[in-house]
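Retro notes, structure queue

What went well: the backlog is down to a handful. What didn't: a couple of records were mislabeled last round, so from now on we paste the full input next to the output in the thread. Example, using Galactokinase from Alloscardovia omnicolens F0580:
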Amino acid sequence: MAQIEFIDALGVDDGVRQVTELFREAFGEEPAGVWDAPGRVNLIGEHTDYNNGLCLPIALPHRTFIALKPREDTKVRVISTLSDGKVSEVDLDGLQAGDVEGWAAYPVGVAWAMRNTNFGTGVRGFDAAFASSVPLGGGLSSSAAMTCSTALALDDVYDLGFGSTDEGRVTLVRMAMSAENDMAGAATGGLDQSASLRCQEGMALLLDCDPKLSAVDSVSQHDFDLSKRGLELLVLDTQAPHSLNDGQYESRRRLCEESAAALGVDSLRVLADDVNARPEQERADAIAEIIAKLDSEEAKKRVRHVLTEIGRVTDFVEAFRNGDIARSGELFNASHDSLRDDYEVTVPQLDVAVDVARTEGAYGARMTGGGFGGSIIALVDEGKAEPIAQKIADEFDKRGWNAPRALAVVASQPAERVQ
Ligand code: GLA
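Corresponding output:
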């Protein structure tokens, strides 16, 4: 059987060299600087961000590098190590939402979003070269790594001053989100961009997506040093086809909003807070009472997922802080089962990968990200990530599925300037 492949993270020296060389070849001059931004895995709290709920991402060591130089005109030219030597060119002047096709929509969208604000009117065009080790379509936010690295680079070269503080970075999160939602047409709820710009090394970011909170109150950092606890986090990209653009994500999002309206609240978060304020043994009844008011079976299941999942985030933070790894793992498992049965966003590859990880001794395993393909994570004892990944690869091979790829991951630093 084929040996499981691990995707190495592109280190800073190699990343800087690759994008600088590509920039020189494509544009015949030196970039003004090099920046990078990480992909993310969400530990728990899935499909909660757009319900004003809680999530808990870490930043990956796998990052996207950008070499950038501002231009005097409004032209944007971008190239990537994956674009086969092809430079995409777009003029920012007169650009409207949705105008840019293909991957250039992401970096161009960031400059476009900035120019639509009162602080960004001075933003002009730029040349940029990208290289990345965040797997594409793996549910690990390669798009956020691209928009967030671009946002930080533009913030820096135009002296906008947002990148230097965590509070300021919330503005860059908004720019990156607008690029993805409005220019690329990908609905995303803010988890990915916040992770890429606000996570800290060694820490998990508890992100509260209640829009009423200030930047400072919306996050807290929680120790996630696994080696100290003799643990490892396996991340495994199932290589099942993954897309947020086929309407499944949007339709779930809409149903959550409609259900909140039908239940007389602004967002499902309000109800989650009511439920989670109760003693644990009363929560299931409280949820049953709420969902009984909804008409469709589908809405009942979706709402049950969101309400239980928000509770699991706080429970996980507490269990992990107390060193209760068994309980932390159980919460991973409960999250996956809820995403499979109630939110219905898993695919067979995700379910099988999770099952194998559990059978092979993971404390817990779950899909991470939006679902419909993408990656799983498993909390395992040190030294177990590789053999468990191999078992999953063997099972995939037996079933005739694409070979999965694994990533060795520790909680890493947020978007930064590296050159
Ligand atoms: C995708 C979206 C995020 C979030 C997750 C599900 O990754 O981009 O905003 O909604 O799905 O938790």
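Agreed that this is the format going forward. Reviewer comment attached to the example: The chain is about 40% helix and 20% strand.
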